[in-house]
Fold:
Amino acid sequence: MVLGAGDSVSRRAKALLRPLARRVGLAAPEGAWWELGRRPWVRPRAFRRQPAVCNICHWSGPQFARPYHTEMADCPLCGSIARDRFLLHCFLSRVEYRRGLRVLETSPRMGAGYRELMRRFFDYTASDFDLSAHVGDIRIDLQDIALPSASVDILLTPHVLEHVPDTRRALREIHRVLSEGGRMYLQVPLCYGKTHVPTTPEFHADNTPVFFNFGWDLTEQLEAEGFTVAALVTPQWFDMLNGTIPPARSNGDGFHVEEMLADSRPSFLVKAASNEEAEKYGFQPGYQFVTFECVKR
Structure:
């Protein structure tokens, strides 16, 4: 683990405060990073002092644990990867915080510390389809959500929709359970210009089959099911898609950049971070980061 000097001082201070914090009920028994109530929507103190910063647990240091990639750039402290940080950044930078906000997250890949952090500030529930690869509070099939209508204010669903056989049915169910004006923050592996079905069996790390490789035309399906849609992107990707900076080229990382550029829908694009935030939080390469913000109409 790589830590800056400020982090070492912070840890020593927390070690001294931990007995008092436990006594008044603030600290978890294991003394984890979330115990003193860090607020994930507040910019980390070390933001300008360190090259790499985690906006979830506020770790900072010279670099993330692995190379820059949406599925890597791991935080050495909380284990978040770059897309975890981008999803939470999109949500917290676009929604005004209020106590009691009902947040449902499908198949979160992060562990108990992350879920504890979310429960400090939200009415937070984690779900999974069969509880086999991800820890959840409840089991949910997005095609038939066993929750009352209008019972969720925010749905965070990272890299799940591509594993659902019936996209239309799932989107209708999500629309039903969201409250009036509720929002879904949707991530899928957006590597192609247009949606297509895999021609050979395709699986991700948790051995769940992939039914769709989505493209920009996913926005049309979302709008057809009653959502107002914005594609939240990094400033680098925004500028590439709008032709104001030279485009990147596909480099064998699985992202078909030329297709994505040809089939993009610039009118849906919204910059979700500053250039400095994208650099510090590890949202690089920029073309690998898209989160769909879907507001219930």
